[in-house]
Design goal:
This protein is of the alpha+beta class and 98 residues long. It has one domain. The protein has 3 helices and 5 strands. The chain is globular, with a radius of gyration of 14 Å.
């Protein structure tokens, strides 16, 4: 079994107001794309120390896409199951539905 180095596992991001790491991520695969919800932890820049939620998607080859996230209603239960592995992200999203 091949071990993956920590640097390979850590996803990073960079935005105009800061950069950092994707601390948690819920993702599913569909025939068209990979809907993804991410917890962004800012470590540098004006937003350092803060968290943000990103709703995004990747294409089938794993490339980040800069277009709106569209999730089929039939895929919502699978995305909800993927969120079970993201406790911080799940708590933040629960605050949206209050």
């Amino acid at each position: 079994m091949r071990r993956v180095a920590a640097a390979e596992r850590t996803k990073t991001f960079s935005l105009h107001w800061g950069s950092g790491v994707i601390e948690e991520e819920a993702q599913i695969a569909t025939p068209y794309h990979r809907p993804t919800i991410q917890l962004l932890k800012f470590t540098r820049g004006q937003a350092a120390g803060s968290y943000e939620i990103r709703l995004c998607h990747y294409d089938l080859k794993g490339r980040f896409q800069r277009s709106p996230l569209i999730v089929d209603a039939a895929d919502v239960p699978r995305l909800a199951r993927a969120l079970r592995r993201t406790p911080k992200l799940r708590r933040l999203l629960a605050r949206l539905a209050r």
